[in-house]
Amino acid sequence: MQNVSLAPDGTEYQIPTEEENARERETLIKITEEQRALGRKIVAVQGLGFVGCVMATVVADATDKNGEPIYFVHGHQRASKRSFWKVPVINSGEPPVSSSDPEVPQIFHRTVVEKKNFRATSEDSVYSLVDIVVVDIQLDATKPSFGEAEKGFCDLLAFREGIRMLGQHIRPDCLVLVETTVPPGTCEKVVKPILEEEFTKRGIDIAVNPPLVAHSYERVMPGAKYVASIRDFWRVFSGVNQKSIDLCREFLSNVLDVDNYPLTQLDNTNASELAKTMENTYRAVNIALTLEWARFAEQIGVDIFKVREAIRKRKGTHDNLLRPSLGVGGYCLTKDPVLANWAMQTLFGLEGTLGMAIRSVNINDTMPLHTIDLIKTVIPELTDVNVAVLGVSYLENVGDTRHSPSKVLVEFLRKEFAKVLTHDPYVETWPELEDSQVESDLQAVLPGADVVIFAVGHDQYKGLKPAEVLAICGTKPLIVDCSNFLSDETIAEYKKLGCQVRGVGKGHIV
Amino acid sequence: MQNVSLAPDGTEYQIPTEEENARERETLIKITEEQRALGRKIVAVQGLGFVGCVMATVVADATDKNGEPIYFVHGHQRASKRSFWKVPVINSGEPPVSSSDPEVPQIFHRTVVEKKNFRATSEDSVYSLVDIVVVDIQLDATKPSFGEAEKGFCDLLAFREGIRMLGQHIRPDCLVLVETTVPPGTCEKVVKPILEEEFTKRGIDIAVNPPLVAHSYERVMPGAKYVASIRDFWRVFSGVNQKSIDLCREFLSNVLDVDNYPLTQLDNTNASELAKTMENTYRAVNIALTLEWARFAEQIGVDIFKVREAIRKRKGTHDNLLRPSLGVGGYCLTKDPVLANWAMQTLFGLEGTLGMAIRSVNINDTMPLHTIDLIKTVIPELTDVNVAVLGVSYLENVGDTRHSPSKVLVEFLRKEFAKVLTHDPYVETWPELEDSQVESDLQAVLPGADVVIFAVGHDQYKGLKPAEVLAICGTKPLIVDCSNFLSDETIAEYKKLGCQVRGVGKGHIV
After folding, report:
1. Where do the domains of chain A lie?
2. Strands (DSSP E) found in A90-144
3. 8 Å CB contact between A361 and B293
4. Distance separating alpha carbons of residues A120 and A98, to the nearest angstrom
5. What is the pTM of this model?
6. pLDDT tens digits, B110-121
7. Minimum distance, in Å, between the CA of residue B283 and any CA atom of chain A
């Protein structure tokens, strides 16, 4: 079992031996030569995670005026136990991610099986064969202390290693296009120096062949428009020198729908990197604001969601106003403000704090505790109280549990000795909270419930009638609505049936 | 001189004597009877300030299907030395405010002189004659300590007096429509109890005749669409009981363009009051965010304004992102977050702070000091340094100096013993900084300048060519751009001519 990678569906895949790697190297050279002979440029995508694997298919799917593929794409994934399985899965024509977007399986099948111009590998030497590397290495912020994002940092170790590997293999004229969301300054202060160092070691004169580094960030959204959110959307980019900028523009123009979503070029990579983290901080700050006002609204009989709709009538100036909920999850809003603050203090050594950014993350990260406070206004003592949490993903109608606020909710409910059962129609396993069984049948979580929390507004929950819910419960539980899920009419019905109801930002129902 | 009110143009107006007031009472009764005979309802607007005087004309200008005026409007302004002059000015058909909106003088002339259904008075008894009072009393937040908005409070004394006067005069079935931006809770906790108290004193049974109180906030913007921003814009409203709500809806529907800008009714007046303060807090928070990132951008070679444009490409989700500048001025964004925080803590006695709101006000209020820091990166010691500040209003192409950040800039430059001259084409007098002579001729401020600050982006400054500016200066001053006023090309030209240039959020030029 030592050299096996386990796929989510339980299939075991042998990690390649040295011999197999040697054969793979020959295969890569042969394929690459064949593809070059077809007039195609060769691209490697580094990291086949949530963004990388779909980006790879989008690149492979790009065609010229005659409908011929412009690129051949090598997807590269390290041969780790955790991730190697993606290589054989992709090469069978299947996506390594589950998605509600029907285009996802289609584009994998089309590029891998039909066009045969996308192939995955775990062999590092692939980088020596390519014209462009798209860097999609995962990069996270570490927040060592709950609710203290100011202590957050970015561990660049694996990222540096990934870039160093490129420096050891790539041709001097290969464009390194960083697509990962990175702390501002990373291309100039991390990527470029490492490539220069490795180039110099290899005897490449960096005065003649300065590394070509560009940055362009994706704006991918999980859900029904997963592929389109990569391909058919506005892009911002820049590069560390003019040649990088020109090559990046050419590449993005080939791959993306730039006619409908024109590219935006910024002055330098610092600007492009800063734009991505600021963009997400804008949303994090926006949500944090609504959370503070939701708490106020709850205590003065106000429905913050109706207030929000009233404000959003002012299109163009006020319609970005977001809404409060259980809390903020996902991969971007929880970490990007921290990356920027850390970059300012550490990569640039500047004084001060991005205070609005950090404060917003702290408010958002700790927001799930407010739902527990709401419960306690009705049930002060939670020991042995049966709580059913409906929804553990971080977004409606999506099975993505990364940084889900439901995790904080469940953990803190358990700290109060509540008995917590969880349900989600989109989530089979919950990797971030492995000891929690996520049920797909309401019959498994509702019977005997003292509290039912509508944590995430999945469509499936919308069809539930109060009488139906109470029949399964066999109790008259406290109903808690975290995401403006219940209409005023449904709330009135629950009350009529003898339940108490509370809701985040819903002061008008108390 | 004891009983004289001085208009801004220097004209003196005698404040009415008791005899004159007695005659005015008879006149008011006569006019009101005549107007009722024409089938018109009678409205009073309480407070003829920035909002009230224009709102009064909009109400008077409203017509029925036959083009006949629906209302007669009594504008009421207290007979104070500071403000009485507005009464005779309005009654001559002239607006008591200056504006770049050509509709302002037109609508005053049309309603006062042509239709003769708007008239101003300082006589309190007018309130006994009317069907509706629109309350536009000014209400400000007091921030006793610079940069510490958490200590801010709302002094309701004058507002309470105004409402009490209504309670002493109005008919029991008169609708009191509060249009002033008030701390959330004001209608329920201040207006209604005062009216109930005064009604009871007058022998009115409030069980039979509960006071009719509604709240609907304006969204007026100074500038070229002043009148339209009151009349042709979305409105939010609510009332303390069903009759108040119904009367308010009827009134607003008669007066405003509700076909194109439908009304939004909220559950209660707390909600409507909260919506207004949250709406402006949303913008205050938004700006504070950009200010923090502007400082970061300046130090890493990034132009935050280009970053902003890149982010704003995402229409509907990111296009509300505002821009940094010298600071935040005006009447709304500087006070509304404070009103809400004070209401939460004081009117409702709740724990906690609206932290994002308060923090944003502190960042915004102190932002002008950052421009001084920018200057000091080039000129560390400001004693006897000649500084020309171009623009003292708080908004481009508008002469409104209320809470202008230029005031903070000038005051703190003076504390550093700089010699400051100020210029603004739209501002004749600067009531908030009376000892500062505001020049309208650049020849009066530029000669000998060591620093030229483009504080506000008035159009007039946009035509200025660098060579022209330097010719008037006779020096090679440091040029400071606080509002993304200078293009990259213009900055290059200033540099070519030997100037240094700095700008808020403009790291790419250093």
Report:
1. 4-268, 367-509
2. 118-121, 132-135, 141-142
3. no
4. 18
5. 0.96
6. 999 999 999 999
7. 8
**Interface residue of A182, A186, A269, A270 to substitute, partner B, most B CBs within 10 Å:** A270
Handedness of CA B342, B344, B350, B356 (dihedral sign): negative
What's domain B4-268's superfamily in CATH?
NAD(P)-binding Rossmann-like Domain (3.40.50.720)
A356 touches chain B (CB under 8 A): yes
Mean pLDDT of chain A: 96
Architecture of the structural domain at B367-509: 3-Layer(aba) Sandwich (3.40)
Burial class (CB in 10 A: 0-12, 13-18, 19+), A428: exposed
Q: Pull the structure tokens for residue B245.
A: 């709500």
Residues of B in contact with A356 (CB under 8 A): 285, 288-289, 292, 356, 359-360, 363
A497 pLDDT more than 80 = yes
Between A and B, how many CB-CB pairs are < 8 A? Answer: 186
* Predicted-assembly ipTM surpassing the 0.90 threshold: yes
Q: Which of B278, B281, B302 sits opposite A274 (nearest CB)?
A: B302
B281 touching A (Cβ < 8 Å)? yes
Residues of chain A found within 8 Å of residue B359, distances taken between Cβ atoms: 355-356, 359
Could you say which of B296, B311, B320 has the minimum Cβ distance to residue A319? B320
pLDDT at B435: 85
Are the C-beta atoms of A476 and A470 separated by less than 8 Å? yes
A38 touches chain B (CB under 8 A): no
Check CB contact under 8 Å for B356 and A285: yes
Instruction: Tell whether the model's pLDDT for residue A423 goes beyond 70.
Output: yes
Tell whether the model's pLDDT for residue A2 goes beyond 80. no
Nearest to A256 by CA among A238, A229, A276: A229
Q: In degrees, to the nearest 5, what angle opens at C-alpha B212 toward C-alphas B207 and B218? A: 160
- Tell me which residue of B485, B482, B507, B472 sits closest to B497, measured CA to CA: B472
Q: How far is CA A18 from CA A13, A83, A122, A230, B361, in A?
A: 16, 18, 12, 36, 62
